[in-house]
Design a protein that fits this description.
The chain is α/β, with parallel strands linked by helices and about 650 residues long. The protein is built from 17 helices and 32 strands.
């Protein structure tokens, strides 16, 4: 396949903007910047800084900037929100499938240990499972038992909570208009902010309605925020922002120091550049380790850098917000030659240098030009670690020591730099099927023993498939890297023949199972939700609103089990598997977990199809070789109107094979 771009290289839209150091600033050029590139020649930097000041004054005047949004007391937290995590509601740090409950204490403890704690979380909810059935984005929040309690627990721990808004959700169940639904959700769940998925900004009416619903609500767009909308958006992502070799300045944060940005490169395994940019600009980072079901965990080096960085930022917030900021401050010639750069922050009698080392080797020489009084190395490293950060503090002679300094020094003693930049791989482990004990039902399709090779077709999604990330170190995958049709090869061996039921289990058959066994699920939410009123016309339709455990319980009662996805495909490719009416996806015995995300493969397709966006789960009837990776939600949300199942049986010998052919 030929691509029109190199996915490992930043696109033109991602790149930094050069700032001419002579002549007046070009507003059309600089208004559109993501990052103002840092000039390589130190001699150009005073003029470069002057151009930045001139642009800011001019832009604020042109756009009639008031800054009123940043004066809202209820939104003041956002300007000091230095670390935020995007987390799938069913991340196994946040939710226990075994205990069937949310585990915020476990999630918070892990973040505190590895990242120095969090200031906020985005509770991600619908994508990438929305579109499986008619449930809309609001249903995937409102139908979660215990979600208000989870939000309260996060608030009690001092974290702010963002909900997610998907403007592209236009093809599922319709309720009120999006703005009415979102305003009600924000108020009902006491959300602190809204993450604007796929949007750079919200329109003014949108902002005003949300503010009325939840005074102080904080909006955070996904990418470059237009300069005129810094006025009413307290936060934005610095997503896929490519910095210059000599670190530059974030345009939105320079325009309004109180505007918080969160650097994020979701598919990168080395986060050094975004961390350096955040440290030099006095902004935050997005910690995102399970991207829509794909493990992209942070290395020990990067997580240690975040821990050190946010610990300082929280202590010196007044300096970062109100101090005089000098980007690319003057350093010694030795430091400059080694690839060491710094921002200087001055407030009253205190000066802070936030320092980065772009080089691979530790830098042990002098960093700043000597002045009056001693420098305090806050990290007490004696060096600026290779690919790491440093922090130097100066207190004017005779001035009082800042109240926050002793506590900060004590906290940093247990936070050394960690040079280990290895990627922390995780493997998704498959749950082994239980052996069967009964005879196959008449007419079952027999898959003979022996080796097999399969071609599996799927649509490229951010979920990936079995192992590893679909995109590594890529800059914002675009079609045809995203959403295109792909194949993979699967091979294995059946040690014994397997019989796969020719049709799905029906409502009538499942009712017989309930009558015979008295089965009741441990968590009944959404169980058989379609069994209302007169069901006589649907007795022969596939049973739905059952999850994997429900399906396994039925199969065990029949002396069988669920077929694996390979067995399902091998049986389906004979042409002898029948589909019920309506057609529904089939559960398979394919449950995997990497310790953070659980998923299973669906087979068969269904008659339902959500239209209007590529982000939905695929609908429509599918050939046997097609698979969908479904991330498994908890608390009954895996039960769907479009997913049923069929049984399979292990066959002991050739006589069994002959009986069912």
């Amino acid at each position: 396949m030929t691509y029109a771009f190199d996915p490992l290289v930043p696109r033109p839209i991602d790149r930094q903007t050069d700032v001419p150091v002579t002549g007046p600033p070009d507003p059309d050029l600089l208004d559109e910047a993501k990052i103002f590139a840092g000039p390589p020649d130190p001699a150009d930097r005073p003029a470069w800084r002057q151009r930045l000041h001139e642009w800011r004054d001019d832009a604020r005047n042109r756009h009639g900037y008031t800054g009123a949004a940043y004066d809202r007391p209820a939104a003041a937290w956002a300007m000091r929100c230095y670390s935020v995590a995007q987390v799938w509601l069913w991340d196994e740090l946040l939710y226990s499938f075994e205990e069937r409950r949310f585990t915020p204490d476990r999630f918070i403890a892990d973040a505190r240990e590895r990242f120095g704690g969090l200031d906020a979380v985005v509770l991600w909810h619908a994508y990438p499972i929305i579109g499986l059935d008619e449930r809309n984005q609001w249903d995937f929040y409102r139908d979660v038992p215990g979600l208000p309690g989870l939000v309260k627990a996060l608030h009690d721990a001092g974290l702010r909570v963002f909900v997610d808004y998907n403007p592209w959700d236009v093809g599922t169940r319709r309720g009120e208009d999006d703005l009415t639904e979102l305003a009600a959700l924000v108020a009902d769940f006491d959300a602190d902010g809204v993450f604007l998925d796929t949007l750079k900004k919200a329109e003014p009416e949108f902002v005003a309605r949300l503010e009325r619903a939840r005074p102080g609500i904080v909006l955070e767009g996904e990418s470059k925020l237009p300069v005129e909308r810094i006025e009413d958006h307290s936060c934005s992502w610095a997503q896929f922002f490519a910095d210059s070799p000599v670190p530059g300045v974030l345009r939105a944060h320079w325009y309004e120091r109180r505007h918080m940005q969160h650097h994020v490169r979701r598919w990168h395994r080395d986060h050094t550049e975004e961390l350096h940019s955040a440290w030099l600009n006095g902004v935050g980072v997005m910690v995102w380790e399970a991207v829509f079901g794909v493990w992209v965990g942070w290395s020990r080096r990067d997580s240690a850098t975040v821990r050190r960085m946010v610990t300082v930022q929280r202590a010196v917030g007044d300096l970062l917000l109100d101090g005089e900021w000098t980007p690319l401050a003057e350093l010694t010639d030795q430091a400059e030659a080694a690839g060491v750069y710094a921002s200087r922050w001055e407030l009253d009698d205190v000066t802070l240098w936030t320092v980065v080392n772009r080089g691979e080797e530790d830098y042990r020489g002098p960093v700043v030009v000597p002045g009056d009084g001693a420098l305090i190395d806050l990290f007490d490293d004696g060096v600026v670690p290779g690919r790491g950060i440093g922090a130097l503090l100066h207190i004017a002679p005779g001035a009082r020591e800042p109240e926050w300094l002793p506590g900060l020094v004590e906290a940093l003693r247990g936070m050394p730099h960690d040079p280990d930049a290895r990627f922390p791989h995780r493997l998704a482990i498959r749950r082994s099927p239980e052996p069967t004990t009964g005879a196959a039902e008449p007419g079952a399709v027999v898959v003979p023993a022996g080796p097999y090779v399969l071609t599996v077709r799927y649509r490229a999604r951010e979920t990936g498939m079995y192992q590893g990330a679909p995109y590594v170190d890529e800059w914002k995958p675009l079609p045809p890297r995203l959403h295109d049709a792909r194949t993979l090869q699967r091979d294995g061996e059946l040690t014994a023949p397997v019989a796969v039921a020719s049709s799905e289990v029906t409502n009538a058959q499942f009712a017989e199972f309930l009558e015979a066994t008295g089965y009741r699920p441990a968590d009944p939410h959404r169980f058989l939700a379609h069994w209302t009123g007169d069901r006589s016309s649907t007795q022969d339709s596939p049973v739905t609103f059952v999850d994997l455990d429900d399906a396994r319980a039925y199969c065990a009662w029949r002396g069988g089990r669920l077929p694996t996805e390979d067995e399902w495909q091998l049986a389906g490719e004979t042409g002898r598997l029948r589909r019920g009416e309506p057609a529904v996806w089939n559960w398979t015995e394919s449950e995997h977990s990497d310790g953070r995300t659980r998923f299973a493969m669906l087979k068969g397709g269904c008659d339902y199809r959500a239209e209007g966006a590529d982000w939905y789960v695929e609908g429509g009837r599918r050939d046997p070789d097609f698979s969908v990776k479904l991330l498994l939600p908890g608390l009954g949300l895996a039960r769907s109107a479009t997913v049923g199942f069929r049984c399979a049986w292990d066959l002991a010998g050739s006589s069994d094979v002959e009986d069912v052919r």
